[in-house]
């Protein structure tokens, strides 16, 4: 993942100024900016508040020896060009762009996709020195997924991204990282990919954890898993000043347990 960090870091310092890309031509403008930068194979889709770019390029991804998919040799230069172009257009437009999405695939590895999602306000705050680099990366959704070969932007992104959805994805990844750091290094807990969604006023976070060295979770370990997850949730939602929810539900499938925390109870974990 080092190449990803280098590429993303180089393009976070974008430019700003008066709007030069009118919202009526935002998609066309970005397409032309990318072509001028040597990226002619991009598809662009602009919804009401979400700008998406899709790239299919050989060697953007690579097949690892264990069968997994990783970042390929072409990603670094490609990522810099595409993200720089997105930043240039988004930050110099009168369009109300709240999220941008980058979807990268490799024709040599059909069905594998690298997805990056960012909240544009995070980008602006970073450029105003209100966020450190580490926090900016933590707020970036970056993952490799499998999907149908030939996936289009219209299929992948049929509608706008909502802030509560973005926060649920971010919370799942940050909880997973926190649980790995706290438990997996010591072998106490095996941590897999955690899930996040927002439904009917609730953040629903699925904690994909299993006992590590011990045959079963102790009560203290279970409580600590819930406490650690709750602390991450309370901290992130507080930083975003997001109040548009009623409760948080933490689901632990391995034990068939879930805990529901009303919004008012989260304050104790800040």
Q: Into which percentage range does the β-strand content fall?
A: 15-25%
How does the overall form come out from the CA principal axes?
Answer: globular
Number of strands: 13
Helix percent band: 25-40%
> What spatial order of strands do you see in the largest sheet?
1-2-5-6-7
Q: How does the major sheet shape up?
A: 5 strands, mixed
**Alpha plus pi helix count:** 9
State the secondary-structure class.
alpha+beta
From the N-terminal CA to the C-terminal CA, the straight-line distance is 30 Å
Which keywords apply here?
13 strands, alpha+beta, globular, four-stranded mixed sheet, 270 residues, five-stranded mixed sheet
Explain how this protein is built.
The protein has 270 residues and is α+β, with helices and mostly antiparallel strands. Helix content is 38%, strand content 25%. The strands form 4 sheets. A 5-stranded mixed sheet has the order 1-2-5-6-7, with helices on both faces. It has a 4-stranded mixed sheet with strand order 9-10-12-13. A two-stranded antiparallel sheet has the order 3-4. The chain is globular and about 60 Å long.
């Amino acid at each position: 993942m080092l190449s990803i960090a280098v590429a993303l870091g180089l393009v976070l310092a974008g430019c700003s100024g008066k709007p030069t890309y009118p919202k009526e031509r935002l998609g066309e403008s970005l397409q032309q900016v990318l072509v001028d930068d040597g990226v002619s194979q991009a598809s662009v889709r602009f919804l009401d508040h979400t700008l998406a770019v899709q790239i299919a390029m050989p060697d953007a991804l690579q097949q690892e020896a264990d069968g997994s998919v990783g970042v390929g040799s072409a990603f670094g230069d490609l990522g810099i060009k595409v993200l720089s172009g997105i930043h240039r257009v988004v930050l110099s437009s009168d369009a109300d762009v709240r999220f941008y999405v980058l979807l990268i695939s490799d024709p040599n590895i059909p069905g594998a996709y690298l997805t990056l999602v960012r909240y544009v306000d995070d980008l602006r705050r970073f450029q105003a020195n209100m966020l450190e680099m580490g926090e900016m990366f933590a707020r970036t959704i970056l993952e490799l997924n499998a999907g149908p070969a030939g996936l289009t932007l219209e299929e992948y992104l049929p509608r706008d991204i909502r802030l509560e959805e973005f926060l649920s994805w971010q919370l799942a990844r940050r909880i997973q990282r926190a649980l790995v750091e706290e438990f997996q290094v010591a072998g106490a807990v095996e941590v897999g990919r955690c899930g996040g969604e927002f439904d009917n006023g609730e953040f629903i976070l699925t904690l994909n954890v299993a006992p590590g060295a011990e045959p079963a979770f102790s009560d203290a370990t279970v409580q600590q898993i819930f406490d650690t997850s709750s602390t991450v949730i309370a901290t992130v939602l507080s930083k975003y000043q997001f109040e548009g929810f009623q409760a948080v539900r933490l689901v632990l499938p391995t034990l068939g347990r879930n805990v529901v925390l009303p919004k008012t109870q989260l304050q104790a974990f800040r």
